[in-house]
Each structure stands twice: as structure tokens, then as C-alpha cells.
Design a protein that fits this description.
The complex is a heterodimer.
Chain A: H1 7-15, H2 20-39, H3 46-58, H4 67-75, H5 79-92, H6 103-111, H7 116-129, H8 132-146, H9 151-167, H10 188-204, H11 206-214, H12 218-231, E1 239-240, E2 243-244, H13 246-260, H14 264-280, H15 286-301, H16 306-320, H17 325-338, H18 343-347, H19 350-355, H20 362-375, H21 381-394, H22 397-414, H23 418-432, H24 440-450, H25 455-468, H26 473-492, H27 505-517, H28 523-539, H29 544-553, H30 560-574, H31 577-583, H32 598-606, H33 627-634, H34 655-662, E3 703-704, E4 710-715, E5 718-727, E6 733-742, E7 748-756, E8 762-765, E9 780-788, E10 797-805, E11 808-816
Antiparallel strand pairs in A: 1-2, 3-5, 4-5, 5-6, 6-9, 7-10, 8-9, 10-11
Helix pairs in contact in A: 2-3, 3-5, 4-5, 5-7, 6-7, 6-8, 7-9, 8-9, 9-10, 10-11, 10-13, 12-13, 12-14, 13-14, 13-15, 14-15, 14-16, 15-16, 15-17, 16-17, 17-20, 21-22, 21-23, 22-23, 23-25, 24-26, 24-32, 25-26, 26-27, 26-28, 27-28, 28-29, 28-30, 29-30, 30-31
Chain B: E1 3-8, E2 13-18, H1 24-39, E3 48-51, E4 54-61, E5 64-70, H2 76-94, H3 99-104, H4 106-116, E6 117-118, E7 121-122, H5 127-148
Antiparallel strand pairs in B: 1-2, 1-5, 3-4, 4-5, 6-7
Helix pairs in contact in B: 4-5
Classes of the chains: A alpha+beta, B alpha+beta.
Keywords (chain A): Coated pit, Cytoplasm, Cytoplasmic vesicle, Golgi apparatus, Membrane, Protein transport, Transport
Organism (chain A): Phyllostomus discolor (pale spear-nosed bat)
Pfam families (chain A): Adaptin_N, Alpha_adaptinC2
Chain lengths: ~800, ~150
């Protein structure tokens, strides 16, 4: 049998292969030869064969049939065999296979071998890939070697111990005694690996950490070693570009960091040496900066005095100006970590950070962006935003979404003026409109709604923006909503902030219809557009028929969402035309949504609920958020708890209660039962805010008294009295307190009081004190009604009472006409 | 350090040292993805990138990429020095090392690495000592060979 070919020969041969197929063929041939050689248990060439196998394995070919052979090589007495055998084990075996456990005995023997290089092989292999079982079995041997005077072995044993501890943390204790004199070594290899071992122990166990701080006085030892490294002269063996053993310096600094963390004494003991390293280290090469970097990390993490911290941040600032992009990257990363705690110090380097936005490296740009957002405040917002908007314009697509979100947040927090805020939003929408996150759209809409004086300006700018290009969905959505809301301002040509444009109703409808038809528009966008068109039916005068036509066309749209909306809007035109103007009224200022409530606002804006249209009128839809909210605003509502349903958002409530307000003409029996329970209310699952969850504390302090009270209702033993108060702050507001009492001999339970007023009034009903009117006049239910009467018309009210009495459900309607003039004049 | 990979500009693997236990399949997948990512980097970019939850430090020497995966608390800049030190060791050993040396003597490249790093950490900071140990081990190998024959 000819000798198997040599390793180098094989490599040469395989490299001549011109195709993948050719290479595969060669490999297969050689593998077959190797396999038969293994079968023959040939000792002489096993080493050579395994080496060849390892080469083929690196090329990506399977080599598992060589695993056992590696073990045989390890067991051999020849050093060559062992060398290749251990290498093979590290490459081919992993701890998932049981085979590797067979190594344990060999390793144990080799750990006690007479030749240190064999011992070294065993330590290396164990330290690289030893499984937990192996580590458990051999920890004792490793510990022994940790105490040897042979520095070659001692350093390897230290790192092997690190691996053992990582695999089997419980074994940490047994290495403790051996660590006693580790740092007294002169040998740098041992020093370095010892520091690594101590670091591992301190990181893993707070007890160890405390022990090393107090008992071993580790900090002074480390400080001493570090000092020697810095002060000692040139040592050729450990010198790297003029710095003595930077690897050891860095590891010592890292261990000091762990020791100094949250410990005043330790931090103080290392203060000087840190300052020394920070000021004396050469910064011209990477190696010096590596040490400075570690130093900065340590200073920032321990309890250092402020002077030292400033020094550290300044080092980072200098890093930012370094030509080496790696250094800049590292600086930005570190600054990002410290910006929260040392904000002012980092602010000083703001301009340099902002310059990094223009860097060519993607990672640097990202960090610079994050850091920039962290540094934005009320003072620098204008300047920063200019830079950030420019960045948004020119950055890679992967950044745009985050950048846009960041800009919106910063703008919201620090906008110097409403106009600036709107302009900024506009700029983002037009620059990166398609990258804006979906949830930003409702937030923006809310912002725009709340900037009341900017409505004309905003809608004009948005209109101009989508005229040319309506492909960016978020932009189009916001624009469509605004046009729907403020279309009247748009065509009226009244804009204070800039030159008003001349737009006709038809032109506006043109653009909205284009959006509807366009292939680029998503379903959501189309929904916005359709609703906007619908809203314009109450704001435009000449084009109502056109709108009607559009709406009816979409009644047969394939898109279910659109179809539904169109059908309901159609119904608004036909059956419920009298409600249309009220339903489509201008949206009032919205409460800040505290939850993650994007879609919720959208729903109230644009969507109508799929309520059956037989008996109920279409519920809320684009209703005024609640006239109560308007009421609150007019009353300077800061001290007034908003009329919020018990649900955590301050969304406008559902139809039921509001309809009672708005539509005094409606037959009350037709209205949905406005029970506080949300169940009866379709879609938005919130109870009618009117009849719900607020305290009925008096909400003004400045109330005028002296108006005579009336008995609004008295029938079947139930009496309801109204008492009046007028507000000083707002003469249009009347506060009515009702008191319901029960003179019968049985309680009235589930008592619900509802009220409706004519269209020119607005009503807010706060929650009742209870739902039981006790018998024999022993108690009353109190409830507060607030009425807004801006036109000072005669107050009229229709009330509906429902309650359970004597086992049956009672219901009654009544009109209250006997309001005293002082209550409304 | 979790692992170190050496690969050519064509993406051919020249050395792989793993310090964490992973299956062959996982190693192949990681290698493939990482090689692709690093090769796609432009020359002006910095030597660090985030990949999965690791920090990747890489540097190109002639036709070979040296690529290390380090953990969050490890110092990127000193890792660059570690890579450089390894290249210096190879250079001293092979005399002006080039990719071919590493291809034809891959086992030696491993032996040198194993005298410099152990379990992912630096075990010897003196260049001289590492080279001395390799030299001695090589001598031992020859001596023992002679003995057998």
C-alpha cells in the first residue's frame, strides 16, 4: 500500500482544481483513501491523514469519521501525534457529542506529563472546549497547575481556570487559595492571565468581590503594577509603540473598574493612577488610545471625583476629532453611555458630534444621530433641528424612520413656536414622508388640531405639498385629513403666515379624488381621502353634488373598508341629512393621548362604526370629540378633570350620550340606551362620557348663587329638583345640580337620569352620586349638569328617567320648561 | 473573544477558532453570514460593527481578513492590537507571511494562535516568549520524529 500523500501535496493538488465539481471529486477520492487507512489502524500515517482531513474540513467537507482518530492521536506518545490530535479535537469535536468525554482521561494524563509542551496542549484544549463534565473532573488538576512555579504552565492554568469557572461557577471557590500570590509574579504572561482570572471571579461573585477588596487589598497591588508599567523605562520584550505592555494595562484598568464600582474607598485609592494614565498616555497611535479608552470607561463607571470625570469626557471629545474613524466610533459609543449622567459635559462637544453626522461610516452616523437627539434641548433646538433635518435629507434609508421619529419627539418637546413646529413637521413629511412611522400620523394630526391659529397655514402648505406628489403615504394621510377638516379655510384664501393661494373647491376635490384612484395609495390612505371628501360636504358650498356622486360610487368599492364608509356616508346624505352638519363639525382640541393610542384617534377621525342602520343613527364617526371638551376648554379647563371615560385614554366617547345632547329633536326612545355600560354603545368601547366616572365635585370656585331652584319633575313618588349656579368666569355656563328623591316605600334602583337640550346649547352630565334613590325620602341622588348657552336662549330641556321600582322597569320622559330667567339670561 | 475567523477576499475560510460551543451547522451559518457582511463593507468604514448581539472587530492585511467577535464589555481598540500582534507573530515565524503560508501551513497558524490566546483571552503578552515556545515545540516535534524513525 503506497504511503498516503503528504499534507502539502494534497493542498497543492486540491488548489489546482478548476471547478467545484473537480475539487469535490478529488476530496472524495482522498477521503476514501483516508477511510481505508483508518480502517487498517495504521499508526504511522494516522497523523498525516487527520491533518489532511482537517484541511478538507476547513474547505467545508464533512470530517466526522475522523473524530475517533483524533482521540487515538491524543493517546499516542508521539508529540507530533498529540499536537495534531488535540488540534483535531478542538476543530472536530464539540461538547454535544459523547465522544469528547473519552478525551477526559487522556487530558488528565497529559496534564501530568513530564514535558511542559504536552501539558500545555492539554491545558489549551481543556480551556477552549472543555465541557462541564470534563471541567468538573479535571478542575483539581488545573488548580494544582495554578500553583506551580513554572510560569509557562501557570499562565495557561489561570486561563483554563477561567473557562472552568465559566462552565461550572460553583467550582470558583476552589481556585481562591491559588490566587493568593498570583500578582507577585514578575512574568507578564502570568500577570495578565491572573488579572483575567481575578476579573472573572469578581464579576461573577459579589462575595469574591468584597473579599478581594477588603482582605486581599487588591486595589493597591494593581495600582502598584500599573504604576510600574507606566514609569519603568523601555522594555523591549513588552513594548508596543513606546507603551509598555498595553494588554496588561488595559486588563488592569478593567479590573479596577469592577473593584471601584459603587465603592468609595476603592475609587479613591485609584484616583491618582487613573489621572496619571489619562494625562500621560501617548495618543498618536491606536495602542495609546486603547488604554485611554479603557481608562475613560473606568473613570465613568466608578465613583470618581468630578474633575476626573470632566477629564474623561474631554478625552472623548478629543477622540471625536481624531482622524482615525475607529477612535471616533468608540468615542461616540462612550458618550452615548454617559450623556445621561454627565449631560452638561457632553453638551460642550455638541458641535463636534453634529459634525459626525456627515461621516461616511454608517455606524458612526447612527451613533452621532442618537447622541444628537440626546443632546437636543430648549436652547439649541433651532440649530440642532437644522442639522438634523439636513441629515434626514441625505442619510441612508435605514436611518430615516428613526430620524423622523426622533425629530418629531424633539420638536414636540422643545418647539419654540407653533409655526416652527408645523414647519418642521412639514419638512419631515415632505423629505422623508414615506419613512415616517404609521403611528406618527395620528400624533401629527393631533398636534395640528391643537395649533388652532395655524390651521389655515397648515392646510395650505399640506395642500401644496401633495399637489405635485401624492406617493408618500403618511404625508398624504395627514394632508387628506387636514383638507377634510380645514378645506373651508383653504378655499377662503385666508392665510396669515404666508401668501394665500387661490384654490377652488373643484381643485381640492380633484386632488382628493386622485388620491382615491391612485395605485400608490394604500387602503388606509384611501379611507382618509374618502372621509375628507365627505367632511367637505359641510364645508364646501358649490360641490356638494359632486361629493355625493363620489361617495355613492365607492359604495360598491371592492375594498370593504371603503365600501362601508361610502355606504354610511351615503346614508348620511339620504336618511340622516339633518344630522350631517353636526356630525361633520370641526374637531375640537383633543386631549393628549397618554397611551400608545395611535389607531384610536384615527378611528374617531375617519372611521364610522359598522352599526346596523335600521334603528340607530350612525354612531359617533367624525363627531366633535365631545362638546364637553369644548366646554372644558372654554372654561379654562385646567382644574377640571376632563370628561374621560373610565378607559385610560381620553378619547371622545361614543354616540349614545352625545346624541342626546346634540339632537334635541330626536325622538329619545329611538336613541340607544345611554346606560353607563359601554356594551350598548357600538364600536368605540367606551361608556358615554357624560354619564360616567367623574367625581361630582363642584368644579368652579367662583360661582354666583341666588337663583331660585325649581322642581323639574314630580311623578309617581319621584321628585327631581334643579338648583342653579352661574359661573363668574364664563357667563354662558349654568351649573345645574339635580336632586332626585323618592317618597314611596320602596327604593328605586338602577336610576339613570338623562337630559337633552336644543341644538344651540351644549350639555355636560357628570356622574351621579349613586344609582339608588332610597325610599321614604331618606336620601337623594345628586348629579351635576353643566349647560353652555352662548346665545343666551331660553333654556329648555327634555329629560328621560329610567329606574327599577317594585320589581318592574320604569321609564318616563318629560320636558322641563320652567327654568327661571336668571338661569339662562 | 467568542471566535476568530480568517478569510480571503473571495470569502474562502483560512482559519477558524471557536471559543464557544456551537454545532457545525451553526458555525457554518455564522461564518457564511459574517463573511458576507464584512466583505460588503467599504474601505472607508470603521473596523467595528454590531452583528447580532456581538461586536465584530475586523482588519484586512493584504488579501486576508482577520475577524474577531468580542463581547459587550471587551475593548474594541485593544482587540485591534491583538489582531495586529497575531499577524506580527505569524510574520516573524514565517518570515514576511503571506496568505499562501497560512494556506499551506494552517496547522502551524493554529499552533501559534494557541500559544498567544487561550479560551479567547491573551495568555502571553511578550512576542519573544510566544515565538520561543513555538520554536521549542517544533524542535520537540522533530526530535520525537527522529526517535521514532
Amino acid at each position: 500500500m503506497p504511503a498516503p500523500i503528504r499534507l502539502r501535496e494534497l493542498i497543492r493538488t486540491i488548489r489546482t482544481a478548476r471547478t467545484q465539481a473537480e475539487e469535490r471529486e478529488m476530496i472524495q477520492k482522498e477521503c476514501a483513501a483516508i477511510r481505508s487507512s483508518f480502517r487498517e489502524e495504521d499508526n504511522t500515517y494516522r497523523c498525516r491523514n487527520v491533518a489532511k482531513l482537517l484541511y478538507m474540513h476547513m474547505l467545508g467537507y464533512p470530517a466526522h469519521f475522523g473524530q475517533l482518530e483524533c482521540l487515538k492521536l491524543i493517546a499516542s506518545q508521539k508529540f507530533t501525534d498529540k499536537r495534531i490530535g488535540y488540534l483535531g479535537a478542538m476543530l472536530l469535536l464539540d461538547e454535544r457529542q459523547d465522544v469528547h468525554l473519552l478525551m477526559t482521561n487522556c487530558i488528565k494524563n497529559d496534564l501530568n506529563h513530564s514535558t511542559q509542551y504536552v501539558q500545555g496542549l492539554a491545558l489549551c484544549t481543556l480551556g477552549c472546549m472543555g465541557s462541564s463534565e470534563m471541567c468538573r473532573d479535571l478542575a483539581g488538576e488545573v488548580e494544582k497547575l495554578l500553583k506551580t512555579s513554572n510560569s509557562y504552565l501557570r499562565k495557561k492554568a489561570a486561563l483554563c481556570a477561567v473557562h472552568v469557572i465559566r462552565k461550572v461557577p460553583e467550582l470558583m471557590e476552589m481556585f481562591l487559595p491559588a490566587t493568593k500570590n498570583l500578582l507577585n509574579e514578575k512574568n507578564h504572561g502570568v500577570l495578565h492571565t491572573s488579572v483575567v482570572l481575578l476579573t472573572e471571579m469578581c464579576e461573577r461573585s459579589p462575595d469574591m468581590l468584597a473579599h478581594f477588596r477588603k482582605n486581599e487589598k487588591l486595589v493597591p497591588q494593581l495600582v502598584r503594577i500599573l504604576k510600574n508599567l507606566i514609569m519603568s523605562g523601555y522594555s523591549p520584550e513588552h513594548d508596543v509603540s513606546g507603551i509598555s505592555d498595553p494588554f496588561l494595562q488595559v486588563r488592569i484598568l478593567r479590573l479596577l473598574r469592577i473593584l471601584g464600582r459603587n465603592d468609595d474607598d476603592s475609587s479613591e485609592a485609584m484616583n491618582d493612577i487613573l489621572a496619571q494614565v489619562a494625562t500621560n498616555t501617548e495618543t498618536s497611535k491606536n495602542v495609546g488610545n486603547a488604554i485611554l479608552y479603557e481608562t475613560v470607561l473606568t473613570i465613568m463607571d466608578i465613583k470618581s471625583e468630578s474633575g476626573l470625570r470632566v477629564l474623561a469626557i474631554n478625552i472623548l471629545g478629543r477622540f471625536l476629532l481624531n482622524n482615525d474613524k475607529n477612535i471616533r466610533y468608540v468615542a461616540l459609543t462612550s458618550l452615548l453611555k454617559t450623556v445621561q449622567t454627565d449631560h452638561n459635559a457632553v453638551q460642550r462637544h455638541r458641535s463636534t458630534i453634529v459634525d459626525c453626522l456627515k461621516d461616511l461610516d454608517v455606524s458612526i452616523k447612527r451613533r452621532a444621530m442618537e447622541l444628537s437627539f440626546a443632546l437636543v434641548n430648549g436652547n439649541n433646538i433651532r440649530g440642532m433641528m437644522k442639522e438634523l433635518l439636513y441629515f434626514l435629507d441625505s442619510c441612508e434609508p435605514e436611518f430615516k424612520a428613526d430620524c423622523a421619529s426622533g425629530i418629531f419627539l424633539a420638536a414636540e418637546k422643545y418647539a419654540p413656536s407653533k409655526r416652527w413646529h408645523i414647519d418642521t413637521i412639514m419638512r419631515v413629511l415632505t423629505t422623508a414622508g414615506s419613512y415616517v412611522r404609521d403611528d406618527a400620523v395620528p400624533n401629527l394630526i393631533q398636534l395640528i388640531t391643537n395649533s388652532v391659529e395655524m390651521h389655515a397655514y397648515t392646510v395650505q402648505r399640506l395642500y401644496k405639498a401633495i399637489l405635485g406628489d401624492y406617493s408618500q403615504q403618511p404625508l398624504v394621510q395627514v394632508a387628506a385629513w387636514c383638507i377634510g377638516e380645514y378645506g373651508d379655510l383653504l378655499i377662503s384664501g385666508q392665510c396669515e403666515e404666508e401668501e394665500p393661494i387661490q384654490v377652488t373647491e373643484d381643485e381640492v376635490l380633484d386632488i382628493l379624488e386622485s388620491v382615491l384612484i391612485s395605485n400608490m395609495s394604500t387602503s388606509v390612505t384611501r379611507g382618509y381621502a374618502l372621509t375628507a371628501i365627505m367632511k367637505l360636504s359641510t364645508r364646501f358650498t358649490c360641490t356638494v353634488n359632486r361629493i355625493k356622486k363620489v361617495v355613492s360610487i365607492y359604495g360598491s368599492s371592492i375594498d370593504v373598508e371603503l365600501q362601508q364608509r361610502a355606504v354610511e356616508y351615503n346614508a348620511l346624505f339620504k336618511k340622516y341629512d339633518h344630522m350631517r352638519s353636526a356630525l361633520l363639525e370641526r374637531m375640537p382640541v383633543m386631549e393628549k393621548v397618554t397611551t400608545n393610542g395611535p389607531t384610536e384617534i384615527v378611528q374617531t377621525n375617519g372611521e364610522t362604526e359598522p352599526a346596523p342602520l335600521e334603528t340607530k343613527p350612525p354612531p359617533s364617526g367624525p363627531q366633535p370629540t365631545s362638546q364637553a371638551n369644548d366646554l372644558l376648554d372654554l372654561l379654562g379647563g385646567n382644574d377640571i378633570t376632563p370628561v374621560i371615560p373610565t378607559a385610560p385614554t381620553s378619547k371622545p366617547a361614543s354616540a349614545g350620550g352625545e346624541l342626546l345632547d346634540l339632537l334635541g329633536d330626536i325622538n329619545l326612545t329611538g336613541a340607544p340606551a345611554a346606560a353607563p355600560a359601554p356594551a350598548s354603545v357600538p364600536q368605540i368601547s367606551q361608556p358615554p362620557f357624560l354619564l360616567d366616572g367623574l367625581s361630582s365635585q363642584p368644579l368652579f370656585n367662583d360661582i354666583a348663587t341666588g337663583i331660585p331652584s325649581i322642581t323639574a319633575y314630580s311623578k309617581n313618588g319621584l321628585k327631581i329638583e334643579f338648583t342653579f349656579e352661574r359661573s363668574h368666569t364664563n357667563p354662558s355656563v349654568t351649573v345645574i345640580t339635580i336632586q332626585a328623591s323618592n317618597s314611596t316605600e320602596l327604593d328605586m334602583t338602577d336610576f339613570v337620569f338623562q337630559a337633552a337640550v336644543p341644538k344651540t346649547f351644549q350639555l355636560q352630565l357628570l356622574s351621579p352620586s349613586s344609582s339608588v334613590v332610597p325610599a321614604f325620602n331618606t336620601g337623594t341622588i345628586t348629579q351635576v349638569i353643566k349647560v353652555l348657552n352662548p346665545q343666551k336662549q331660553q333654556l329648555r330641556m327634555r329629560i328621560k328617567l329610567t329606574y327599577n321600582h317594585k320589581g318592574s322597569a320604569m321609564q318616563d320622559l318629560a320636558e322641563v320648561n320652567n327654568f327661571p330667567p336668571q338661569s339662562w339670561q | 473573544m467568542q471566535f476568530m475567523l480568517l478569510f480571503s477576499r473571495q470569502g474562502k475560510l483560512r482559519l477558524q477558532k471557536w471559543y464557544v460551543p456551537l454545532s457545525d451547522k451553526e458555525k457554518k451559518k455564522i461564518t457564511r453570514e459574517l463573511v458576507q457582511t464584512v466583505l460588503a463593507r467599504k474601505p472607508k468604514m470603521c473596523s467595528f460593527l454590531e452583528w447580532r448581539d456581538l461586536k465584530i472587530v475586523y482588519k484586512r492585511y493584504a488579501s486576508l481578513y482577520f475577524c474577531c467577535a468580542i463581547e459587550d464589555q471587551d475593548n474594541e481598540l485593544i482587540t485591534l492590537e491583538i489582531i495586529h500582534r497575531y499577524v506580527e507573530l505569524l510574520d516573524k515565524y514565517f518570515g514576511s507571511v503571506c496568505e499562501l503560508d497560512i494556506i499551506f501551513n494552517f496547522e502551524k497558524a493554529y499552533f501559534i494562535l494557541d500559544e498567544f490566546l487561550l479560551g479567547g483571552e491573551v495568555q502571553e503578552t511578550s512576542k519573544k516568549n510566544v515565538l520561543k515556545a513555538i520554536e521549542q515545540a517544533d524542535l520537540l516535534q522533530e526530535k520525537m520524529l527522529k526517535v521514532v524513525h
